[in-house]
Design goal:
The complex is a heterodimer. Chain A is mainly alpha-helical. Chain A is built from eleven helices and two strands; from the N terminus they run H-H-H-H-E-E-H-H-H-H-H-H-H. In chain B, the strands form two sheets. A two-stranded antiparallel ribbon of chain B has the order 1-4. In chain B, strands 2-3 form a two-stranded antiparallel sheet. In chain B, helix 2 packs antiparallel against helix 10, helix 7 runs antiparallel to helix 10 and helix 11 crosses helix 12. Classes of the chains: A mainly alpha, B mainly alpha. At the A-B interface, helix 4, helix 9 and helix 11 of A face helix 5, helix 11 and helix 13 of B.
Chain lengths: ~300, ~325
């Protein structure tokens, strides 16, 4: 295939990746922004979402769409509940001391990952997409129109769904009482507490919400990718990269960076191997933290 | 003359470890050799984390640098073991100096993430140059090469003594460092960096020194691992090998010279035991980390030290 159409396909796949990455990274960014907690177990919540989606979809019979909708509801709720209780049982008791919480979430990473291995087994599992029509895309070369390219309706649905969810989260944060309470806690924990905001509950809710976002994006992607207990590493690394490049705690920066990195990840992989792309990305992140800790698009460091 | 209780205790532990080879079965002897190599790694990590208060999540990079520094020179340039071992240490030390100089511009959580990212980049680099590093599946150093002169390092008894020597030297160096004036400055930085600065010390060279020393320990352990056990691979640069010394130090007692040894022994046998029961044996690592950070921050020896009016260094 020529470079042009190949790039076009790559950017479409990139857009799917970017959409899912934006959701996952938003969860991480929210938790860091509100709670100042670096959640190393975030990728495992993603993995749990995917595994639960497979479990639900394979246990609800009938049309794949029924199982998918079931997973879309059950996985985020369950993962959110697990995360909220982990916050209540572990992180709260550490008083959210930054270094201690990182060590604790590393522990949580192993517990969730190995727990999934015991519960769901080591085999990679596939989930059938609720619908999967082939959509032909025209491409032009000089005056000829080619029809060799295609994508699937499900991929387009993932992009649309992610945008819808992002908008909903934005509305939730900016227009509802819950969002107001979260933002107040983020700005000043003590003052919020003095004004009667139950900060501990807000924290548990935020941690659960962040994890649920990761689980939700995993449910969306699992019909395209397979689910296995070790899949948490990549989304964790990519979310870290996005959150840091976008500026720690800045939601707008997170979205821009997710778009940039998700898209470029798809396009770069046409030219470089994925490993080389990851090496460059991790080094860039380290250098950004060393020389420009507020992120590339970042708001001021706090 | 005052009796140096601490020195006597450490020498006694070293003597006890040496004596273990005469009472242990070959299986446990092999385990203890491995434990002593890993404990050397953790002993260096303790100087950085336990004494200086800097939590690195990327020391697997230095362990792997030592391992590949020794392994690659033997594989491609036919270095004898006696030359490959210091090459590994030098590679790790140089890398630790470079990474330390960069990462120490940050503090706290950012330091943890920067070290994690550098180590991850190193791990991926080993996989990327798979043609030379055989990163994904690792390579085995031929038994004939793993010898110093006539001494075969892969035999059970000589391997044990080699591991014991490396650990003993490491332990005594660590003891000397933490009891020196520089060691006191490291502790002061851990307790209060601003106040240390106010007292007229520039913390940066001390912190860099701690990174470099811990990197050298990690490199020595990595090179020793390659020589004694023969395997070299990218998996030793993975995040799990960065977490391990942290776990050993936390369990044994951060800021106690003997802590990492105690932690290594306990975790090694805990994982070994769990491995027999379940394939998900790494859950031990997770549960131990969470329980330690929640209930026992001082670790085993840290808790004991509190009851012995603190003479244990």
């Amino acid at each position: 295939m020529d470079l042009g159409p190949q790039l076009m396909l790559a950017s479409l796949d990139g857009a799917v990746g970017a959409a899912v990455l934006a959701l996952t990274a938003l969860g991480l960014s929210l938790v860091f922004g509100v709670m100042r907690v670096v959640n190393v177990a975030h990728g495992e919540f993603f993995m749990l979402g995917a595994m639960i989606a497979w479990f639900v979809a394979s246990n609800i019979g009938g049309h794949p769409a029924i199982g998918f909708v079931g997973a879309l509801i059950i996985a985020p709720l369950l993962v959110g509940a697990i995360a909220a209780s982990a916050d209540w049982l572990i992180l709260k008791r550490l008083d959210y001391e930054p270094e201690a919480t990182i060590v604790a979430t590393i522990g949580l990473l192993y517990i969730l990952q190995q727990g999934a291995l015991v519960t769901f087994g080591p085999v990679a599992q596939a989930v059938e997409a609720p619908f999967n029509h082939r959509i032909e895309i025209p491409w032009f070369e000089g005056s000829n129109v080619g029809w060799g390219l295609f994508t699937t309706s499900y991929k387009l649905f993932v992009i649309a769904a992610a945008i819808t969810i992002l908008l909903a989260v934005w509305l939730l944060l900016s227009r509802t009482k819950m969002g107001l309470v979260m933002r107040a806690t983020q700005l000043d924990r003590e003052t919020a507490q003095a004004f009667g905001i139950p900060v501990e509950k807000v924290y548990a809710l935020t941690f659960g919400f962040g994890a649920a976002l990761a689980a939700l994006s995993a449910v969306l992607i699992v019909p395209i990718q397979q689910a296995d207990y070790l899949m948490g590493g990549d989304p964790l690394l990519l979310s870290f990269i996005v959150v840091i490049i976008g500026g720690l705690g800045s939601l707008r920066g997170t979205l821009i960076a997710a778009l940039l990195i998700g898209m470029s990840d798809g396009i770069i992989s046409v030219f470089f191997t994925p490993t080389l792309a990851k090496i460059i990305a991790t080094l860039v992140v380290a250098m950004v933290l060393v020389f420009r800790p507020q992120g590339l698009f970042g708001a001021k460091a706090q | 003359m005052r009796v140096d209780r601490a020195l006597i205790l450490h020498l006694a532990v070293i003597a006890l470890l040496f004596a273990m080879q005469y009472v242990m079965s070959p299986y446990h002897q092999g385990n203890l050799a491995r434990i002593m190599v890993l404990a050397t790694y953790a002993t260096g990590y303790n100087i950085l984390f336990g004494y200086t208060g800097l939590l690195s999540l990327g020391h697997a990079l230095f362990f792997a640098a030592g391992m590949y520094g020794a392994g690659m020179t033997m594989r491609y340039w036919d270095f004898p073991a006696i030359a490959a071992f210091p090459t590994g240490i030098i590679a790790a030390t140089a890398l630790a100096f470079l990474i330390g100089a960069l990462a120490l511009r940050t503090t706290g959580v950012a330091f943890m993430i920067v070290t994690l990212m550098f180590a991850q980049a190193g791990f991926l680099t080993l996989l990327y140059f798979n043609e030379y590093t055989r990163g994904d599946e690792g390579f085995v150093l031929p038994q004939a090469d793993r010898a110093i002169g006539m001494i075969d390092l892969s035999a059970d008894d000589t391997r044990f003594i080699a591991a014991w020597m490396i650990f003993s030297v490491g332990l005594l160096i660590a003891l000397a460092i933490v009891r020196s004036k520089a060691g006191r400055v490291l502790i002061a930085i851990r307790e209060n960096e601003e106040r240390t600065r106010m007292l007229g010390f520039n913390p940066f060279p001390y912190k860099l020194g701690a990174v470099v020393v811990s990197g050298a320990f990690a490199g020595a352990a990595g090179a020793a691992y390659a020589l004694l056990f023969g395997s070299v691979g990218a998996s030793f640069a993975s995040i799990q090998y960065s977490i391990e010394p942290l776990l050993f130090v936390l369990l044994g007692g951060a800021g106690v010279v003997l802590g990492p040894l105690v932690g290594s022994i306990l975790i090694f046998y805990l994982i070994d035991y769990a491995r027999e029961i379940t394939t998900a044996y790494l859950i031990v690592v997770g549960v131990a980390l969470v329980l330690l950070i929640l209930f026992a921050r001082k670790g085993v020896l840290g808790s004991i030290r509190r009851r012995t009016d603190g003479w244990l260094p």
